């Protein structure tokens, strides 16, 4: 089963949560965006939340339910 992926990314002076090309929400602070991203990811498991730094690099990832890695065998 494919996981839903959400990304917390910088958005001008604020932050946004994206799922693919769809914007889930925009926020004034990174903390608010991460909290919203976690709620969205938990509501659509299996999922993954990828949090980016202000320069766009991946800071951390959270996986919810049935992480297929490492693969069996």
TrEMBL record:
InterPro entries hit by this protein: DUF2188
Superkingdom assignment: Bacteria
Pfam (any one): DUF2188
Name listed for the protein in its UniProt record: DUF2188 domain-containing protein
């Amino acid at each position: 089963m494919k996981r839903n992926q959400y990304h917390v990314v910088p958005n001008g002076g604020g932050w946004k949560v994206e799922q693919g090309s769809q914007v889930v929400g925009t926020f004034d602070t990174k903390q608010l965006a991460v909290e919203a991203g976690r709620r969205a990811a938990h509501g659509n498991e299996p999922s993954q939340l990828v949090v980016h730094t202000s320069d766009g690099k991946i800071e951390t990832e959270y996986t919810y339910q049935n992480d297929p890695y490492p693969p069996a065998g």
